[in-house]
Amino acid sequence: MRKALVPGSFDLVHNGHLEVIARASSLFDEVLVAAVLNPGKDSAMFSLEERREMLAESTEHHGNVSIDFFDGLLVDFARDHECNAIVKGLRAVSDFETEMQMAQMNERLSGIVTLFIPTSARNSFLASRLLREVARYGGDISSMVPESVNQRLRDRLREQGDVT
Ligand code: PNS
């Protein structure tokens, strides 16, 4: 059985993530989507449980996608869960340098290969940080995220007293 690991921060889940997961789902028998416990960039907008729920709600129709969390080295998690490959989305050339470096490090550490799936042009500019910022200033991101994610985001911004 071929099992892919799709890792990420997923703070928040957007259509670019979902496109990569959908493509992995059609190429592999099983897909494990793993959200990093501590995204470590700025403080996370969504808790672990919220990120898990957003991913589960948006991927349940595939039937072969499960959701988990990980901490520590990605390749240790991949080995523990018997994943054959790591799958990452590539949006633009600007992603390539960092992603290539991580792929080569992960391959050296574990022998596990990384497969890059290009996002479609329609989704190539999507990034969680940018979407959070646009929404915070009142921009409409409803065509770029699932409806359930948009609703959660609006609720969170309302709780925080930001523009919705
Ligand atoms: O959504 P992101 O922020 O692009 O996800 C990056 C992530 C979580 C996949 C990456 O930071 C990662 O793999 N972190 C785990 C720690 C690790 O294994 N670091 C070495 C990478 S070569």
Describe what you observe in this structure.
This protein has 164 residues and is an alpha/beta fold. The protein has a single domain, classed as HUPs (Rossmann fold). Helices cover 45% and strands 19% of the residues. It contains 6 helices and 5 strands, in the order βαβαβαβαβαα. It has a 5-stranded parallel beta sheet, with helices on both faces. Helix 4 links the parallel strand 4 and strand 5. The longest helix has 18 residues. The N and C termini lie far apart (45 Å).
Major sheet strand order: 3-2-1-4-5
Number of strands: 5
Envelope shape = globular
Rg value:
16 Å
Largest sheet: 5 strands, parallel
How many domains is the backbone divided into?
1
Indicate the topology.
Blueprint: E1 3-8, H1 15-27, E2 30-36, H2 48-59, E3 65-70, H3 74-80, E4 85-90, H4 93-110, E5 113-118, H5 128-136, H6 147-160
Parallel strand pairs: 1-2, 1-4, 2-3, 4-5
Bound molecules: 4'-phosphopantetheine (PNS).
4'-phosphopantetheine (PNS) binds next to strand 1 and helix 4.
